[in-house]
Design goal:
8 helices, three-stranded mixed β-sheet, single chain, Four Helix Bundle (Hemerythrin (Met), subunit A), 171 residues
Amino acid sequence: MKETPQQYTARMLSLAEGLDPLAILATTPGRVGALLAGRSAGDLQWMPEPGRWSIAQIVSHFADVEIVLGYRIRTILSAPGGPIQAFDQDAWVTAQHAERSDAHVSLSLFAAIRASTVRLLGSLTDEELDRFGMHTERGKESIRHIIRMTTGHDRNHLAQIERLVDARARG
């Protein structure tokens, strides 16, 4: 059963509770890299069951989300109150054939864009962090809120990668 936008928001925010968002955002690419280290392409592209993402697909998704995140933040900064377009993550992963993607290439893209995003976020004033856009599914979202959501998103997918690494190691 798919989550509602409200359920998804609550779950992501719960995963970010009590944490330093910028520290999590800054360290996620390195944590992903450590999980990929020494793994074969076959291991990274292994799907535990049909319809479940592989590690390669998750890392491709991280890169996609970082592109979207950077765009959303810059849009909100330059045109506060404007629309924030939702996207279908499954359609993006499918359309890009992420099941065959090179997780290391996706990680390089993710890491480069994330470093730029973290630098930008660290330079923002409180007033800028409180600027918002109107998400087409979730409503009003400030940059501060988006940072917390992304922190939860990172933790969610890192845990998925860890479970896949463990499942693949067990055979």
